[in-house]
């Protein structure tokens, strides 16, 4: 309970992490976690793991404050900068690598933070933390990371079979640093998009519909990826139509549309996909 109050309900998490690293702390919004080219420490990864578990357990009890959300986003960005996605992780968290574990635990906290609408008892005048993260570039970074990973193995295999050109076979995407990394990226986007039309629209406007549809292919490492597509489609006719067009072209297979009570047909007048 004390650690929860210190790290989640007050402003001391950045200072505590910095003290574990042995450097001073004099900035806000997570910027004080200065790596200076060095990796995170195991102690920092352990602390973030504990805080992540507390956050997940108390998500419905506490108010997520903007400074905490921005701190976690700052840590996530710095772990992304410090890591090379050049080798595939063979296990889930913890991996034994401090920087990869920091990446995973901060991403897990962002997933949980974005699953809230600001916590319980929040003042109506306070800004939704998801809006704060969205305006700080969270969605752009997540989509960028997904593009760097490329489609899942099933999709890449299908693309190679459909197109034997050298450009397709010579493409070398970056690799997931731990099992579940792709799932966690998609989960954060899905939670951000839940009942938030601005986020849903931005996914589409950033050419993310095909990208997200390609991610939502289940495999043994990510058995529940399919469910994260629905928050991007629900209540958004433009996104539903965009996916319907992709489905008609054969680019994606979207049972989520059927789950929303929709089916895809060709409009005989416009020769475009329409939802019925």
From TrEMBL:
Keywords: Cell cycle, Cell division. The keyword Cell cycle applies. InterPro entries: Ataxin-10/CTR86_families (IPR051374), Ataxin-10_domain (IPR019156). GO terms for cellular component: cytosol. GO terms for biological process: cell division. The keyword Protein transport does not apply. Residues 181-270 form the Ataxin-10 domain. It comes from the Eukaryota. PANTHER family: ATAXIN-10. This is Ataxin-10 domain-containing protein.
